[in-house]
Amino acid sequence: MISTQFDRIAKSISPARLGVASTVLAVLLVGCGEGKVAQCNKLITVVNKGQQISESIKGMDAPAMRKLSTDLGGLSKEISAVELADEKLKGFQGRFVKIYNDLSEASASVGTALTEIEKNKKPTPETPKKLKQLQADVAAASKTGESAANSEKKLVQEVNTYCSAK
């Protein structure tokens, strides 16, 4: 019974009507996609987790830096997974991913250096040289982290400006 009714309906629709109906349906479906505001909110919600991560870190020891690195790496993947159609937001998304990857790598470098410093508490003839190199590693990682944090602040302002514009 159902197939007969479907057959009757299908036979009554001319190819021209079917083409017009398909076009109207396609326009309606595209128009129902997420708007800029909804996409902004999706991206901002995930990016805001970065603040929560940084506030959750207690101390500057090696385990805290490794946890920070892991959490920021996870956040970067989560940001990357946000589905966006807006090209400008996709650009912002890519920049956030890079920033959080950089912060994750910098945190991992600091964690590794701090672990090595702990290992070198018993002096050997190599200790001063190793410590000097580890200090340089920490300084470089800190500089990278600071640069990424500054880039993040600027990017947040850009996103807020873009998302608040009509």
Verbal overview:
- By secondary structure, this protein is mainly α.
- Helix content is 84%, strand content 0%.
- It contains 7 helices and no strands.
- α4 packs antiparallel against α5.
- The protein is elongated.
- The protein starts with a helix and ends with a helix.
Count of helical stretches: 7
Strand tally, please? Answer: 0
N-end to C-end Cα span: 52 Å
What sequence of helices (H) and strands (E) makes up the elements?
A: HHHHHHH
**Radius of gyration, CA atoms, in whole angstroms:** 26 Å
Low-pLDDT runs: 1-32
Strand content: under 5%
Largest sheet: none
* Mean of residue pLDDT values: 80
Q: Which term fits the overall shape?
A: elongated
Helix percentage:
over 70%
Structural class: mainly alpha
Tell me briefly what this model is.
With 166 residues, this protein is mainly α. Helices cover 84% and strands 0% of the residues.
Secondary structure layout:
Blueprint: H1 2-12, H2 15-31, H3 36-47, H4 49-56, H5 62-81, H6 87-119, H7 127-164
Helix pairs in contact: 4-5, 5-6, 6-7
Core attributes:
disordered N terminus
